[in-house]
Amino acid sequence: MTSLSLPVATLGTPRIGPRRELKLALEGFWAGKISETQLLDTAAGLRAANWARQNSLGATIIPSNDFSLYDQVLDTSVMVGAIPDAYGWKGGPVSLKTYFAMARGSQGDADDVSCGHAHHGHGDTAQEMTKWFDTNYHYMVPEFHKGQTFKLSSRKVVEEYDEAKALGYQTRPVLVGPVTFLKLGKSDDAAVDPVSLLDGLLPVYVEVLQELGRRGAEWVQIDEPCLVLDLNETERSALQRAYARFAKDVPGIKIMLATYFGAIADNLPVALALPVAGLHVDLIRSPQQLNQIESGARKDLVISLGVIDGRNVWRSNLSALVERYKPVIAKLGAGRVQIAPSCSLLHTPIDLELETGLDPDVKSWLAFSVQKIAELSTLATALAGNAGVADALAASDKAAKARQTSPKIHDASVAKRMAAIDDAMRRRTSAFASRAEIQRKRFDLPAFPTTTIGSFPQTADVRNARAAHAKGMLTDVQYEQFLKEETARTVRWQEEIGLDVLVHGEFERNDMVQYFGEQLSGFVFTQYGWVQSYGSRYVRPPILFGDVSRPKPMTVEWWRYSQSLTKKPMKAMLTGPVTILNWSFVRDDLPRSEACRQIALAIRDEVTDLERAGATMIQIDEAALREGLPLRHSEWKTYLDWAVESFRICSTGVADATQIHTHMCYSEFNAIIDAIAAMDADVISIETSRSKMELLDAFTGFKYPNDIGPGVYDIHSPRVPETGEMRDLITLARKRLSDSQLWINPDCGLKTRKWEEVRPALVNMVAAARELRKAS
Ligand code: GLN
Ligand code: ZN
């Protein structure tokens, strides 16, 4: 081979800035502290830095239009003029004001996150937001209405192409593909399947592609990750129509059709028949699909090999990748391949080099987006047969070997415990009916017992004290004293208003996953490892790098203290293994199911210790169980089996008399009700208030036997519900469930609410339960 390197693409890079520059600028702009020009200048600076960085790291196919002020799906809605009437848009270029109104509502989005993770619509008039495939990135759901038409309404993609060109970069602009865009949207007319709007949409895409061509673009990357989902015939034929149209109307543009987050699988015949110049495939999630693609592809189809994990933080074993892909390159020919991450690097933190607090060994096993681009470039050079990268390959080898054998990762005692998991550890001693009997006698609770989900308002005082403690301005003793007072006040107040089962308020917790991750072995945390969750909200997921164990009790002292303040039952509060797993970067040298079982064993230890300390009720939250569902239905069962097993491992090491609660932040349980029942928690609290209890139907139809607390207070809104409203909701619930099953509680934790809202709302909630008791 003669060329120095194969082409290297990145597919997209993080837009937030290494030090969260975009967040700062956006929030400054929203608060009126900086001007629109200042915001746009910051954005342009970030784009320029991104292009320069990718270029200097060796990327040769550099994306443009991967940047967004908020979200690339929202950008697409704006590009095609899919802007609901409510935003008062009269046509013409879309102003930033309209754009941000769609993103955040006119009130902004200060109150919309309950769990540190967004999973609801937000703001009053903001567009709904939901998870982008199986990532923790949330996109703004496109909205279509009756008689929807489309019209080119934003020149962003063209402008950013020009902007890069002026800086000397020939970029490959990125667009969300038309079919994925429509499929992710919703229509206000139930009779209209969004995908049926395709023919009206295509002219806008054609216009954009033609304009890009006129300005000099050779390639355009069109993302159609919908190709890794279960597709129906309408959707498949939409793909055929769309790309046939582009081939006909924009023959001069080469399209790299990008798929990611899974195998194309049964959609492969469709994908391979599309008249596009290139196909990007995710070979991390599905290495095995390459064979079929190689043999089934047109002989001139360029294949973009997604060989470095764009969804995770691990350094690759480059020599192993060279070995694996050398024969592939030989077969396809160097002219037909591009080297790329599995998906856009949007989902990885930016630069590992900024981290100064990580264990040096662990750090040497990691790669963030900057490091991943360097890896791609090394790999592309090595695969082109060039020897200039021997040192980089050797360093990668060394790190891979160290990681395979490091005692920091591999803990023999964990392996031993894992091997010893038996059936007895996966079930309670007695069936629910007998436990319920024992627990009823033990607790002697009134009908419709009232409780809350765990957290109470994280006020500015609480957050300031935590920050002051972290900076060393509050001593450990002072901080603990502060937390104790806050807790005691909250416990006393719950007693005063007459709640039946109390909580301590979770003031000592920064985040429901991080709090546990920090106390478990096997996790590390970063200083700058931010990834975008939505808009200007970024999260720093814990990194699960090694075998998990619990060196010492994590919550027992807080539980003991809070129970000492009251005679009423004090629920101990834990986060479940599936949720800890789903909200972390997880090791790639162990199946997720195994990592989850390890966490389950650690939580089981905590549950056992809590019981030993005297706890009679223990809640184990599984807020993220449902969002971990695989993209393909065929994989659901496997996931649910191990997820449920993990929950059972962590929750069953207790006596019949100990009551296990769980909580889930959603209520669409229809498809997974069997799994929820199989978890066999004594009590589950779920979110239902906004659905008028209709979502409880899942539980009714199945005759769900255990106790349920359907949320009667929508904690995502500052509004204080009246007693009557909550009583009506409970009445609706009673039509679907038996009285003896019902608990009364809010939808979720109260940490994002203000005390002024929480106080009257809970007083009303208790009053509603009392009225019902009297009446029945
Ligand atoms: N116990 C947690 C709280 O109350 C539960 C939050 C959640 O499940 N998202 O905040
Ligand atoms: Zn919740």
Automatic annotation (TrEMBL):
Keywords: Amino-acid biosynthesis, Metal-binding, Methionine biosynthesis, Methyltransferase, Repeat, Transferase, Zinc. PANTHER family: 5-METHYLTETRAHYDROPTEROYLTRIGLUTAMATE--HOMOCYSTEINE METHYLTRANSFERASE (PTHR30519). Binds 1 zinc ion per subunit. 5-methyltetrahydropteroyltri-L-glutamate binds at R20, E21, L22, K23, K131, N136, W583, E627. This is 5-methyltetrahydropteroyltriglutamate--homocysteine methyltransferase. InterPro entries: Cbl-indep_Met_Synth_N, Cobalamin-indep_Met_synthase, Met_Synth_C/arc, UROD/MetE-like_sf. Residues 448-770 form the Cobalamin-independent methionine synthase MetE C-terminal/archaeal domain. Zn(2+) 1 binds at H663, C665, E687, C748. Its EC number is 2.1.1.14. It catalyses: 5-methyltetrahydropteroyltri-L-glutamate + L-homocysteine = tetrahydropteroyltri-L-glutamate + L-methionine. Catalyzes the transfer of a methyl group from 5-methyltetrahydrofolate to homocysteine resulting in methionine formation. Zn(2+) binds at H663, C665, E687, C748. One of its GO terms (biological process) is methylation. One of its GO terms (molecular function) is zinc ion binding. It comes from the Bacteria. L-homocysteine binds at I453, G454, S455, E506, D621. It is an enzyme of class 2 (transferase). SUPFAM superfamilies: UROD/MetE-like (SSF51726). It comes from Bradyrhizobium manausense. It holds the Pfam family Meth_synt_2. The active site is at H716. Residues 10-328 form the Cobalamin-independent methionine synthase MetE N-terminal domain. Pathway: Amino-acid biosynthesis; L-methionine biosynthesis via de novo pathway; L-methionine from L-homocysteine (MetE route): step 1/1. Belongs to the vitamin-B12 independent methionine synthase family.
